[in-house]
Amino acid sequence: MRRATLILILLALAATVAAQAQPARFDQARAPIIDRALQRYVDSDRVAGIVAFVMQDGKVVYDKAFGWADKEAGRRMTTDTIFRIASQTKAITSAAVMQLVEEGALALNTRAGAFIPSFARTTVAIANERGSVTQVPARRPITVRDLLTHTAGISYGTDPSIASLYEAKGLGPAAGAGWYTADKDEVVCETMERLGTLPFVTQPGEAWVYGYNTDVLGCIVEKASGVPLDAYFRDRITGPLGMRDTYFFLPQGQRDRLAAVYRSGEDGKYGRADDGARGQGAYVGGPRRNFAGGAGLLSTARDYGRFLEAMRLGGSLDGVRVLSPRSVKLMATNQVGTLHSMTGLGWGLGFETVDRYGASAMGSEGAFGWGGAYGSLYRVDPETRLVMVLMIQLMPNATDIRDVFPTLIYQALMP
After folding, report:
1. What is the pTM of this model?
2. Which of 24, 136, 360, 390 is a good FRET partner for 259, with 20 to 30 A between their CA atoms?
3. What are 227-240's pLDDT values in tens digits?
C-alpha cells in the first residue's frame, strides 16, 4: 500500500514538473476575454479606438481593432491605422545610438559636448528654502550613457523652478506638453544647442529624470553619422526591418490613415483634443524639419511589433541584423539600480526593465518595454516569447488600459 501511494505521488510530481517545463502558449480560446475587455473601453466612451497587436514565437496571435480612428469623420479603427507614438520613438533612437557604439563612431562614455557645443559646460538649477533659484555648474560632463539612462538631469522644462527660462527659449511650456518639437522650423540640433544653454534639474548621474535626453541623442546620431535622423532610421532600422509605415511626418496621401487625438475629460469620457501641440497637427502639415528622437515618430502597431521582434531575437529579423545580441542585452538590462524605481523596475539603455516577477503585474523577470504620451504601450517578454503593442490616441489619458492590457495577454497563456 505504501509503495503504491509513493508511486502515485511520484507520478503526480512528474506530471507537475512536465507541465511546468512546457512553454506557455497563447490560447486562442481565451482571446474573447481580451475582445470583451477592450470593447468595454470603447462602449463606455473612455477610449475612442484601440489597436492591439501580439506576437508569440514570431507569429501573430492577436491583431484586432476596436472603435474609431476618427469618430467625428465616421472613420473606423483598422489594424493598419497610423498613430503618433511619442516616446516609443526613444527605443528606436536608442537602437541607432547602439549601432554607432558598435561601429566605434562614439562610446557610451563619450561626452555630449563632443557633438553639441553648448553641452560642454552645463548648469543645474538649485532652489533654496525661500524659493529663489540659482544656477551652479554641473559637477561633470553629461555622457551618452547618462542620456540613454535618463540620468543626465534633463527634464522637459516644465518644473516651476525653470519653466519660464525654457519657455523663453521655445521649450518646456512653450512646446505643448514639453516634448513637442515637430512644429519647429529648424533642425533638431539647433533646438538641442539651445537646450544646452538652459539649466537642468539635477547633477548628472544622481537621479532618474525623464526629459529631452533622447532628443539630444537624436542630434548626436545626426552629428556622428553625418545623416539626418529620418534618413538614418530609414536606411539603418525601419527600412531593413520592413517598417513601411514608420516615419517622422505623414506622407502625402496617408492622412485618412492617421488616428485623431482625443483627451480624457473630468468625467472620464473622451472628447476631441485641442488643436496645436496636443493635436499634433504639425506631423501632417508642419515645416517637416525637426526630427525629434525622443517623441517624433508615427507608426502602426504591426510596424512597431516588427522592431520589437527584432529586439526579442537579439537584434535581427528575417535574416537582417540591425544590432548585436550583446547590445540588445545591454539595452534590456537595468543600468540605474533603484534610481528609476524601488519596486523592481529598472531602466536600461532605452527600455524600462522588469527586474522581478510581480513588479509589473504578470510581466516576467527580464521583460522590457515602455509607452507613449498618447496612452500607447509596448512590451517584450523573452521568457514567454511575447511581443505586445497597444495603440490608442488619448492625452491626457485617465484610463487604466495600460495596466489592464498586459494582464489580458498574460491570462491567455496556458501550458
Report:
1. 0.93
2. 360
3. 999 999 999 999 99
